[in-house]
Amino acid sequence: MADSSPATLITLPELVRLQADARALKLPSVKPVRSRQAGLRQSRQKGRGMTFSEVRQYQPGDDIRSIDWRVTARRQAPHTKLYEEERERPVLLIVDLGPTLFFASAGAYKQVRGAQVAALLAWLALWAGDQVGGLVFNDRDLAVLRPARRRKSVLRLLDHLANHQHQGKTPPAPATDSSHGLDTALAEARRVTHTGSRVFIISDFMNITEQTTTLLGAMSRHNSVSAIRIQDPLEKALPSSGRFAVAGPDGPIWFDASNPRFQQAWQGKIDAHEQRLADCFRASGVASATLSTGEDPATALRLMLGPGGRIG
After folding, report:
1. What element of type H or E holds 182?
2. Among 121, 19, 126, 37, which residue's Cα sits nearest to residue 308?
3. Rounded CA gap, 244 and 276, in Å?
């Protein structure tokens, strides 16, 4: 009988082999769009480009170097030039491999699914002619790879994805501080991200703060930002009955799903977090999608990106 336990780790060779799955996605080509949520290939950007497209009223975040001063003087309101361009576009993958992602009740651990999605996006971006970079972090380390259009850069990113996963058989002990959490990674990403980048944040978003919304909002003002949330089925709802054990740093923690008080408390906690996360994404202007640990990441990613390579 085959072992149905969730996969806890994914190795570098397995991440490299995902390039075959990425090729099979066969995402549709992208037409020029006005939205900040553009796809991975051709985009109509604010700022300087190769082909003049049109003039429109200035919007916050536009490159001031593209202001059309003649139109601005004539209409007595700032107007900026838009350019249509096909060029290398930086794609930044921010990947959370912290302690809360060392968990799953089905399919594969959240850290595995996060690494798989990041690898698929990295291969897709490279083949689209874009620069690929990333930030990979857990509760103890943060690796920063500046975007570059080289296969070697993707392989370096995949190596960090493999090495930053928790390698043990038991959950990691909580860190003594949170200096390498999501907010730290987002703050660092702002420092290395070029205006007009395509940013994917891959996390379970279990540890968001008020600062998270501020950081996401600042990044989305000048970049196209999408959040890919990795979620386990137990984080949506408990089974209606049965006793279950969840592994912890100090051993298994048992709970009785048939206990109505426990069910109510659990659901209340889930609902509160869901509302907080929805408010965070809405306030920051970030598009979001969810991948379950029980889903095939390539299939889920095809649905997430949809026509035009856009999430949300």
Report:
1. helix 182-192
2. 37
3. 27
| Alpha-carbon dihedral sign for residues 116, 121, 127, 131 | negative
**CB 153 within 8 Å of CB 145:** yes
Q: Phi first, then psi: what are they for 67, rounded to 5°? A: -65, 130
Q: At what angle do helices 12-25 and 297-305 cross, to 10 degrees?
A: 40
Q: Residues near 246 by Cβ (< 8 Å), separated by ≥ 6?
A: 103, 252, 253, 255
Q: How many CB atoms lie within 10 A of CB 183?
A: 19
DSSP lists the bridge partners of residue 238 as none
Other CB atoms within 10 Å distance of the CB of residue 39 = 25
Q: How far apart are CA 255 and CA 68, in angstroms?
A: 64
Span 6-33, pLDDT tens digits: 889 999 999 999 999 988 775 444 333 3
* 6 in Cβ contact with 104 (< 8 Å): yes
CA distance 97 to 18: 19
Q: Which helix (H) or strand (E) holds 114?
A: helix 110-127
Q: How many CA atoms lie within 13 A of 197 on its CB side?
A: 24
Cβ contacts of 306 within 8 Å, gap of 6 or more: none
The pLDDT tens digits of the residues spanning 195-210 come to: 889 999 999 999 999 9
pTM of the predicted structure, to 2 decimals: 0.77
Q: What is the CA radius of gyration of the chain?
A: 21
Enumerate the β-bridge partners of residue 272: none
Distance CA 154, CA 16 (A): 9
> Using CA atoms, how far apart are residues 119 and 112, in angstroms rounded to an integer?
11
- According to DSSP, residue 108 is labeled B
DSSP string spanning 123-149? Answer: HHHHHTT--EEEEEE-SS-EEEEEEES
Q: Mapping DSSP to helix (H, G, I), strand (E, B) and coil, where does residue 79 land?
A: strand
